[in-house]
Design brief:
Alpha-Beta Plaits; 3 domains; alpha+beta; four-stranded antiparallel beta sheet; globular; Arc Repressor Mutant, subunit A; 8 helices
Length: 245
């Protein structure tokens, strides 16, 4: 996986999601609504909606919440107007950060994001100054257990079109291009595999460690504040999160 394991970040993210489930449902609802607005309400013909629904189900979002979000996106229950905005910043210690937002108030969101970075030692970058350090990839993580045969899984993933397969202590990581992600994920699901993570994300080409305790503390607080904001959908960074975190 280009020398970068996702497992520590997966555990880090999962813990935050468990602690803030109501906010996660709000974010996922927006994600579903925008997917419906852009591609229609039928997940069989809208890959973005299918991915959004599966992500919502993985987070244990109730079916009625999912259905309500689909109807809102289709305009059946009234419709909120959300736009996607991507911010590129440098965090404490020069950590590269990409913040993806869905907002109905651009000025509010921009003000909030700027406040967080100003408070915790960040600097606004120009468009493109950070994204070139990341690769947009599909990531599928499967936990290790006695029912998963590594060789069989690796062969299946590659046959389905995966770019890379790696084995970690906690499980297996499968990397795809964004274009092949749905085919690989669906093929694995049809064979009965369940996923600890399955989404299109930004993977850092290289990760950066922080040694200054103040930088570590500020980076933790910055991520916490960003993820707590309803307008923020995803936070990507190239910080190598310490195991103890």
């Amino acid at each position: 996986m280009a020398g970068h394991s996702k497992w520590n970040n997966i555990k880090h993210k999962k813990g935050k999601e468990d602690a803030k489930r109501a906010k996660i449902f709000t974010k996922l609802g927006r994600y579903i609504m925008v997917a419906v607005r852009d591609g229609g309400p039928d997940p069989d013909f809208n890959p973005a909606l299918k991915a959004a629904i599966e992500k919502a189900k993985a987070a244990n979002m109730p079916n009625e919440n999912i259905e309500r979000a689909i109807k809102k996106g289709a305009g059946e229950l009234g419709s909120d107007s959300f736009e996607e905005i991507v911010y590129e910043w440098y965090g404490p210690g020069g950590i590269a950060v990409i913040v993806q937002c869905l907002t109905d108030n651009r000025n509010r969101t921009a003000s909030d994001i700027r406040h967080y970075f100003d408070k915790y030692g960040g600097n606004l970058g120009q468009s493109g100054c950070v994204t070139f350090m990341f690769d947009k990839k599909g990531v599928i993580a499967i936990e290790r257990n006695d029912s998963v045969d590594e060789d069989e899984l690796a062969m299946l993933a590659i046959d389905l079109g995966a770019e890379d397969f790696s084995s970690e202590d906690e499980g297996f990581e499968i990397i795809t291009s964004p274009e092949n992600f749905n085919e690989v994920r669906d093929g694995l699901a049809e064979k009965g595999y369940s996923f600890a993570m399955a989404e299109i994300t930004y993977l850092p080409q290289n990760t950066v460690s922080l040694s200054d305790p103040e930088d570590i503390k500020n980076m933790e607080k910055l991520i916490e504040m960003l993820e707590d904001n309803d307008d923020v959908q995803e936070v990507y960074h190239n910080w190598e999160i310490p195991e103890e975190e």
